[in-house]
Amino acid sequence: MDTVTIVVVGIWNGLLLGALGAVIVWRERLLEWVTGVDLHDRDERDADGDDQWSAFLAEHPELR
Predict the structure, then answer these.
(1) What is the DSSP letter of 53?
(2) Helices (H), 1-64
(3) Taking CA 55 as the corner, what is the angle to CA 54 and CA 60, rounded to the nearest 5 degrees?
(4) How many domains does the chain have?
(5) pLDDT digits (tens, 9 = 90+) for 8-36
């Protein structure tokens, strides 16, 4: 193998290991972000949008 190839593969493996380490360290926060568990913590201003969206969909049944 060429030296450049070995260096590039080494850098790539380092980046992958760094990403894996970050996922392991921040897994709980990442899972909350991915699954949307934090929806119950929304404030009233944000939750009001649900009612507006439901009213909009009621007026436009073709969008369901």
Answers:
(1) H
(2) 3-25, 27-35, 44-59
(3) 95
(4) 1
(5) 999 999 999 999 999 999 888 888 777 77
Q: Which residue range is the domain that position 36 belongs to?
A: 3-63
- The dihedrals phi and psi of 46, each to the nearest 5 degrees, come to -75, -35
User: What is the rounded CA–CA span in Å between residue 12 and residue 20?
Assistant: 12
- CA 8 to CA 23: how far, in whole Å? 23
Q: What is the DSSP letter of 36?
A: T
* 45 neighbors 51 (Cβ within 8 angstroms): no
| Confidence (pLDDT) at 21 | 94
Rounded CA gap, 63 and 57, in Å? Answer: 7
Residue 6 confidence (pLDDT): 95
pLDDT at 55: 86
